[in-house]
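Subject: Predicted fold for Metal-sulfur cluster assembly factor, 97 residues

User T.R. writes:
Posting the sequence so we have a shared reference for the thread.
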Amino acid sequence: MMLEKINQTLSTIIDPDMQIDIVNLGLIYNIEVTKTTCMITMTMPTRSCQYGESIVSKIKKAIEDLDGITTCNINLVWDPIWTKDKMSKLARLSLGV
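User M.O. replies:
I've generated the structure tokens; pasting them so everyone works from the same file.
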């Protein structure tokens, strides 16, 4: 139930470059909840993503605003590297790829 709520919340966060939410872009690799702490393992489309800090801040605020979560930690990884193959069918259709 909590993972579903977290996923729904993450799907409201839009990547400003691509105008698609971070879930459909395939940027979220893993979500773990332990008591009141959420750990999100994710990546960015590129290492030089100019909106990286902003996206991470939005994620932390949105998740920590959920009832039952007091802390959200982000584990930003570069392996496996993000590719367009990680996007959902909806995201690919929206971007025409």
